[in-house]
Amino acid sequence: MSEIGHQQQKVEANILVLGAENVGKSALTVRFLTRRFIGEYVGTESIYTHNVNVDGRETLFSIWDSVCPQNPNLNNCVTEEQLRWADGFILVYSICDRDSFNVVRQQLQRIHQMKKRHCTVPVIIVGNKRDLQHRREIPSEEGRLLAISSDCDFFETSAAETYHGSLVVFHQLLESLRESRNSNKKNTGIKGIVRSMSAVFGRRRTE
Ligand SMILES: Nc1nc2c(ncn2[C@@H]2O[C@H](COP(=O)(O)OP(=O)(O)OP(=O)(O)O)[C@@H](O)[C@H]2O)c(=O)[nH]1
């Protein structure tokens, strides 16, 4: 995420949408971009750009709607290129598909493994297809628990039923990006080095 010119206050956010096949990644993305649910989506990888005013600030979203590998495992479920590109992540599962929840777990693990040494990175977990309650396999509490234990935000949505849910997800991620960018800034530079050293020595003294 970067700022273009202080006066313009333009914000850029690269958002990677991940999750297993058929969970509604494209539906959620297209809902946010167009307010519409069209039902069937081309199953190809796409990066969409979307210029929009959020809280009085011009914001350029680049949204990478990914395609999950056939047999996702920890090494291929998120690529290095995707991890380098993304400022923030939306991990989508279907509330009616236990396997898709497990894919989100793996993707989360991979993101934390790769990113933890560099900076904090915002992640939102989304349980989609909330309209299909009769087929629910993942209780809301389970999704929320995974999010709390991984320091992520959590929402359940129905891309089929409402626009509002997708709007809240993307706007919340933007908000978290701003916060994490500010905190990452504070932790760089000489103050950050001093803070990190005090943390290390402070901790050692208590061992
Ligand atoms: N009932 C219901 N169906 C949904 C919802 N979101 C998506 N779908 C349907 O689920 C199917 C898959 O949606 P996609 O958006 O293509 O899912 P995807 O995760 O992008 O799938 P891949 O491109 O295969 O990775 C489509 O038939 C959608 O119409 C939802 O909230 N509720």
Automatic annotation (TrEMBL):
Segments crossing the lipid bilayer: none
Keyword line: GTP-binding, Hydrolase, Nucleotide-binding
Pfam family name, one: Ras
Documented EC number(s): 3.6.5.2
Reaction catalyzed: GTP + H2O = GDP + phosphate + H(+)
Origin: domain of life: Eukaryota
UniProt GO molecular function: G protein activity; GTP binding
PANTHER family recorded: RAS-LIKE FAMILY MEMBER 11
NCBIfam families xrefs: small_GTP
Protein family (similarity comment): Belongs to the small GTPase superfamily. Ras family.
Protein name (Swiss-Prot/TrEMBL): small monomeric GTPase
Organism: Pelobates cultripes
Organism placement in taxonomy: Eukaryota, Metazoa, Chordata, Craniata, Vertebrata
